[in-house]
Design a protein that fits this description.
Blueprint lengths: L3 E6 L6 H14 L4 E5 L5 H12 L6 H25 L3 E5 L2 H12 L4 H11 L8 E6 L2 H11 L12 H17 L4 E5 L4 H12 L7
Parallel strand pairs: 1-3, 1-4, 2-3, 4-5
Helix pairs in contact: 1-8, 2-3, 3-4, 3-5, 4-5, 4-7
The structure holds P1-(5'-adenosyl)P5-(5'-thymidyl)pentaphosphate.
P1-(5'-adenosyl)P5-(5'-thymidyl)pentaphosphate binds next to helix 1, helix 4, helix 6 and helix 8.
Length: 211
Amino acid sequence: MTGLFITLEGGEGAGKSTQARLLAECLRAQGHDVDLTREPGGTPGAEALRELLLFGGYGLSARAEVMAHFAARTDHVEQRIAPMLARGGVVICDRFTDSTEAYQGYGLSHGDPAMLGLIATLRGLIPVVPDLTFMLEVPPAVAQARLAGRGDGRTDRYEAEGAAFHARVAGGFDAIARRDATRCRRIDASGTTQDVQQALRDIVTPLLPHA
Ligand code: T5A
């Protein structure tokens, strides 16, 4: 893989989608070949799985839910992310494998070692690893205020979980950032959109392929 693979992670309302879009616009304006995508989703099949996972209400078993996230991811990687990286492009992905570890591993399964082991095994089957992961961090009250102001009216099953769940998810991201400290860059995302974006650009710029 010759391209650059960037992921953005963090809890809901941290500003990932906003920052991913602004970063993609900036890099495209500089002449880079950029694919902006998201998970779960990013291909027709993975978007269908997204709908099932976020809004289906089927009550999948915990292991089935993890595997469904990885089924979506496998399709996304094989059909979209890996080909783009092989062409030397920049892929910016709103959530990736770390979200499965944080949400399913720590949030839903309370850090159960068997579940974290399953996630690690499935992660090992994914042939790409992000070169850089931004962990966007905001206090829960800030995230709540941003989500309330978003006003799109559609709450997915993870967003609907309570404060204790989201605290476990935040703890999961913290554990991942400590473990993978070279790949993961923690960003205080409570500032203005522009300030956060500048922090991202300062880190990305030295890593960019020649435009
Ligand atoms: N999930 C995902 C799993 O459980 N397992 C997995 O493996 C994967 C991949 C995805 C859900 O699926 C779960 C995690 C999620 O619960 P989603 O809709 O993609 O669902 O959810 P999020 O990625 O969390 O998207 P959100 O929209 O909820 O949060 P973002 O992207 O962090 O925030 P953003 O950019 O949309 O901003 C939210 C609002 O805040 C404003 C924006 O304008 C917007 O209104 N805002 C700011 N306001 C002030 N200052 C700033 N700096 C601001 N930045 C943004």
